[in-house]
Amino acid sequence: MHEAKRLRHFASDNNSGVCPEVWAALQEANTGHVTGYGDDPWTEKAKQLMRDLFETDCEVFFVFSGTAANALALASMCDSFQSVICSDFSHVETDECNAPGFFAPGVKMHSVSAVGGKITPEAIERAANARRDVHASMPRVVSLAQATELGTVYTPDQLAAISKSAREQSLFVHMDGARFANAVASLEVKPREISWERGVDVLSFGGTKNGMAFGDAVVFFNRDLSKNFLYRCKQSGHLASKMRFIAAQWIGLLQDDVWLRNARNANLVAAMLEAKLRGLRDVRILNLREANAVFVDMPRRAFDGLHERGWHFYTDVGPHGARLMCSWDSTVEDAEAFVRDVEELLR
Question: Which residues pair with 203 in a beta bridge?
Fold first, then answer.
């Protein structure tokens, strides 16, 4: 009964619908015939908008999913005997079924302990120098998530330090930017200030979680690494024949800063949700909230009661507690309704 009345939840920003601007862009692109596989005006315009956004001449490819963006990007940076240094909570380590190792057989994920979800330069150095002989996988890439899987955000200075450490070990830097927009909104910086200006070679830029139906971007700031990437897309089934419908969504998202407005709303609702929950007895905020995720712990009866009332959220993301993820279409009213239910259940 509760679920039938509830339109939005806090389980995942993947669960939200398509934002109006993206929907309109799809409808506009749905006219006549154009050449397939990306040789069309929409794809070219979307790529140029991406270059304008980052203020650099990057190479851009569109794929169907974030997993494909991460896996194909990492595969393009590694040989079969190499490894990827990543956080122990990173998506590429815990939630992608070793897709990088599928697209580049033999590639190994080398996870390191992260502080608040963030990899440190010291952890990179230790991992890169743990064993460098022929009997071990050769470290090749540092992969980090921005925002992190625990809801925190790397500052420009932290990214610069990580990139410096990576370069000293002859490593590339990959950024899983499934929630890159939320990080930009949180830090109030230009996209270049937390990407290529801080040493990021390749960015998996997420659109699906920020208002698109499907389709993420692989942005090569280091253009040398993009060699033959189109062949990887084709071989893996991620060279869309009707590419204009991925590209059109990016046009709808990037024009007029819709991507940033959507991310700001998700972050704002998360901030309000955190503030209201923080004031409740028997409720504990677990991590520093810097983007659109709130990690919280409370008595089990409250979690069970919230699920019974139709609220969807995960209790298996992160070390313990629950993750409440806000979306581009989350509202203050959603947050207030959730908190009211928590209050009632804890009385």
Answer: 175, 219
H/E element, 92:
helix 91-94
CA distance 293 to 12: 9
Helix axes 41-54, 244-254, angle to 10 degrees: 40
Q: What is the pLDDT of residues 117-141, one digit of tens each?
A: 999 999 999 999 987 788 889 999 9
pTM of the complete model beyond 0.90: yes
Nearest partner of 112 among 171, 178, 157, 182, judged by Cα? 171
Task: Kindly provide the residue ranges of all beta strands, DSSP E only, lying in the chain, ordered along the sequence.
Answer: 59-63, 82-87, 108-112, 138-145, 172-177, 202-205, 216-220, 284-285, 293-297, 322-325
User: Which phi and psi (to 5°) does residue 60 adopt?
Assistant: -130, 135
Burial code (b: 16+ CB inside 10 Å, e: under 16) for 74-88 equals bbbbbeeebbbbbbb
Residue 239's alpha-carbon distances to 38, 65, 143, 231, in angstroms, are 8, 12, 24, 9
Ordered alpha helix ranges (H), 281-327? 300-308
Q: How confident is the model at residue 145 (pLDDT cuts 50, 70, 90)?
A: very high
6's CB contacts (< 8 A; 6+ apart) are 310, 311
140 half-sphere exposure, CB direction, 13 A CA radius = 22
Record the tokens describing residue 78, joined without a space: 């590694």
The candidate with the shortest Cα–Cα distance to 165, out of 85, 241, 95, 234, is 85
Whether residue 43 contacts residue 62, with contact meaning beta carbons closer than 8 Å, is answered with yes
The residue among 217, 133, 124, 212 whose CA lies nearest residue 171 is 124
C-beta neighbour count of 189 within 10 angstroms: 15
Question: What is the DSSP track for 164-228?
Answer: HHHHHTT-EEEEEETTHHHHHHHHT--GGGGTGGGT--EEEE--GGGT-SS-EEEEESSGGGGTT
